[in-house]
Amino acid sequence: MSVRSTPHDHTVAIMRAESYQLSIVRDAVEKGIRAIGMKLPRRKRVLLKPNVLSQNRPAQCTTTHPAVVEAVIAILKDNGNEIIIGESSAFYQNGHTLKGFLTSGMTALAARYGARLCAFEVDGVEAAHNVGRTLPEKILLPRILHETDFIINLPKLKTHSFFMLSGAVKNCLGFVPGGAKYEYHYLNGIGRTVFGEKLADIVQTVRPDLSIMDAVIGLEGPGPSAIGKPRHTGLILVSANPFALDYAAAEVIGYSPREISSTEAGVKRKLLVPANIRITGDFDAPPSVCYAKPVIGADTPKEKNVLYRLIAVRPALVKRRCLSCGICARVCPLGAIRIDEYPVFDYAKCLNCLYCHYSCPAGAIALKGSFFNPLVRLIRRIAGL
After folding, report:
1. Can you give the pLDDT at residue 119?
2. Which residues, other chains included, contact 25 with Cβ-Cβ below 8 Å and sequence gap of 6+?
């Protein structure tokens, strides 16, 4: 990753952007990047990581608006860069991330600008060395990270019914493929404090070069799904430091920044020194756009967690289709599959990254879970999940 750098890594540019008109958004993004002293790459491979929560539409304000992504792509294309748009959406639905790209507007952008779409759970998964301290020594991340020169994190400003704020640090959970993100939520302890530490592990391991937050229209109330309420905020936030960006974003919407456990984890790890944060751009201090806050739900073990039971799926063999080719065992990054005439799953090792499902040439690995109950599908559709 030859162009990695984080100049002025406690500087946050807060720019006005009153609408999603492309010229307005691009002007805000360009000025914000200049304001923090960031030099964008030229003729490199750049990975953009928007927030594509699920198969929602831009008007629902749960996903990074395509105008923000387009503005970034256009700027990068002017520098001759190759663009990849990558994500692994939060919920398993038929079509999964690839359909989420379609509904969120990412597919149209990719076609317009010649960008590549990368659904992490489909494209390739590996067990990467974790430089943090809370998740296991090896954590599941997309293989595309090794093929990327520069990473731009594109979060959406939202309140969060468990984590309080869905921002730049939380958006990095989407680098974890498939259902592994849910397993990591519970692995090695539960609760907001330990979850914030896990997010810090992911950020330290992935090391995004730049974060640009879509806060033109955010989401308030019971976010981060579509049951939250859109809130016009009129801002774009830009920083090389996702912890500093979230600190400023929390102040904008009326949270005490260190209430957000990932921000506190950044402070503890010396990735963030609040006294060193410098606000620049169109403001010299974070403006106040006080959001309606969600009722913060209690965290419960996954065996008792209703949401987990609704969304969790795991691989299961459809024996009549199986070719006994062994591909699933070879690609499994955790060695959770062995071949004994047919594949055998070790669910104690499996973290439901779903890579075996997408790698099977015969479609012999199905995904089983309560989500496939038609009643659950109906409840999710009504709730906007």
Report:
1. 97
2. 17, 67, 68, 70, 71, 216, 236
State the pairing for strand pair 150-154/45-50.
parallel
Sequence-separated (6 or more) residues with CB below 8 Å from residue 276: 10
**What would the mean pLDDT of 205-227 be, rounded to a whole number?**
96
Kindly give, in sequence order, each residue whose CB lies less than 8 Å from that of residue 213, ignoring residues fewer than 6 positions away.
Answer: 154, 155, 156, 157, 167, 168, 235, 236, 237, 238, 245, 249
pLDDT tens digits along 102-154: 999 999 999 999 999 999 999 999 999 999 989 999 999 999 999 999 999 99
Give the E-state strand segments of 336-382 in sequence order: 337-340, 342-345, 365-368
Distance, CA of 237 to CA of 212 (rounded, Å): 6
CA torsion, ordered 250, 252, 253, 259, to nearest 10 deg: 20
In terms of Cα–Cα distance, which of 234, 210, 229, 303 is closest to 11? 210
Which of 205, 193, 192, 88 lies closest to 136 in space, CA to CA? 205
Helix axes 261-268, 242-253, angle to 10 degrees: 140
Supply the DSSP symbol for 229.
Answer: E
- Which domains are assigned to the chain? 11-281 (3.40.50), 314-368 (3.30.70.20)
**Residue 342 DSSP symbol:** E
Burial of 364 (0-12, 13-18, 19+ CB in 10 A): buried
Residue 211 has pLDDT above 50, yes or no: yes
Identity at 22, one-letter amino acid code: L
Both tokens assigned to 379: 């409840």
CA 145 to each of CA 85, 125, 129: distance values in angstroms, whole numbers, following the listed order: 12, 10, 13
Nearest to 89 by CA among 170, 175, 192: 175
Q: ∠ CA(232), CA(32), CA(250), 5° rounding?
A: 50
Contact 168, 245 (CB under 8 A): yes
Q: Are 351 and 179 in contact (CB under 8 A)?
A: yes
- Model confidence over 284-295: pLDDT tens digits? 999 999 999 999
Integer-rounded Cα Rg, in Å, for the chain is: 20
Q: Judge if pTM exceeds 0.90.
A: yes
DSSP classification of residue 90: S
